[in-house]
Amino acid sequence: MSDREKTAGGPLGKLAGQAKEMTGAALGREDLQREGRLQQVQADAEAEADELGAEAERKESEAELKEERAETEAERREVELEASKVEAEETAERKLEQEQRQARAGQVDKEAEAAELERQARSAEEAAEALDPKEER
To answer: What is the pLDDT of residue 132?
Structure first.
């Protein structure tokens, strides 16, 4: 391609290419017509490349967003799982403490019952001794 056939791109390049092509046709210059067509094709290719680049960037951004959402969802689930574990541990600890309190309360009740039975037994012995003081036991 000669220096003369170098083209400018973009919308202005396309208009310039059309002008060159029409001028070349009017003057009967095939080289100027070819240069005009070439400039239009290049402008179209650049526009398409820009569109494809923008679409690729958009898709990449969408993919990154999906990845971030997936990571966020995974983190949320992990936090929920950890919270569930903590809640289960706390529930188990409360249940154990309650069972221990109940066991201590049951022990206290048994000790009180035993003390009452001992008191009744002493009382019965005293009553028996009062009735028959001579007999040794």
So the answer is: 79
The rounded distance, in Å, linking the Cα atoms of 28 and 30 is: 6
Task: Record the tokens describing residue 135, joined without a space.
Answer: 């007999």
User: Quick check: 30 pLDDT over 90?
Assistant: yes
pLDDT of 78 strictly over 80: yes
- In the chain, what are the helix, strand and coil shares in percent, each to the nearest 5? 90, 0, 10
Whose structure tokens read 């005293």? 126
> In residues, how long is the chain?
137
Q: CA nearest 7: which of 45, 46, 48, 38?
A: 38
State the pLDDT at residue 109. Answer: 86
In whole angstroms, give the CA distance from residue 67 to residue 73.
10
Q: Which two tokens stand for residue 20?
A: 């060159």
Contact 38, 5 (CB under 8 A): yes
Interatomic CA distance for residues 36 and 20, integer angstroms:
5
